[in-house]
């Protein structure tokens, strides 16, 4: 079965950094587009960043210059490096994998930015 397992969330102070990771198994390969979404309380889930099989990234405007998405296909892993974190970045962060109309989701990891 397809499984996306996330790790690395936690509590950080404003201006701090975190790196969240997502390990994929069960048939997810390098042809999938990998992405990170987030959902804050009372808001809809939104795309934060994505990366193609060729390694080309996309970023939502609010995180450009602060976040970096990367993937290591040999390890079936996608990363999101988050720098200069702000309280507005507080959310549950979800890993996704998509190909040919199929989308899979991780369980989510909580990121809280607060002093």
The portion of residues forming beta strands comes to over 45%
What structural category arises from helix and sheet content?
mainly beta
**Unreliable segments (pLDDT under 50, ≥5 consecutive)?**
none
Helix tally? Answer: 0
* Number of strand segments: 11
- Euclidean distance between termini CA atoms: 40 Å
Helix content: under 10%
Order of H and E elements: EEEEEEEEEEE
Rg for CA atoms: 13 Å
Biggest β-sheet description: 7 strands, mixed
Describe the structure.
This protein has 115 residues and is mainly beta. Helix content is 0%, strand content 54%. The protein is built from no helices and eleven strands. The chain has strands at 3-7, 10-12, 18-25, 33-39, 46-51, 57-59, 67-72, 77-82, 91-99, 102-105, 109-113. The strands form two sheets. Strands 2, 4, 5, 6, 9, 10 and 11 form a seven-stranded mixed beta sheet that branches. It is globular, with a radius of gyration of 13 Å. 30% of the residues are buried. The model has no long low-confidence stretch (mean pLDDT 96).
């Amino acid at each position: 079965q397809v499984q996306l397992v996330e790790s690395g969330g936690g509590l950080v102070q404003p201006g701090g950094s975190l790196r969240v990771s997502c390990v994929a198994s069960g048939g997810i390969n390098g042809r999938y587009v990998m992405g990170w979404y987030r959902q804050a309380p009372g808001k809809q889930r939104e795309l934060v960043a994505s990366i193609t099989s060729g390694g080309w990234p996309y970023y939502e405007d609010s995180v450009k210059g602060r976040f970096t998405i990367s993937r290591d296909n040999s390890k079936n892993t996608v990363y999101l490096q988050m720098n200069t974190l702000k309280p507005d970045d507080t959310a549950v962060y979800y890993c996704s994998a998509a190909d040919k109309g199929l989308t899979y989701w991780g369980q989510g990891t909580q990121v809280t930015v607060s002093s």
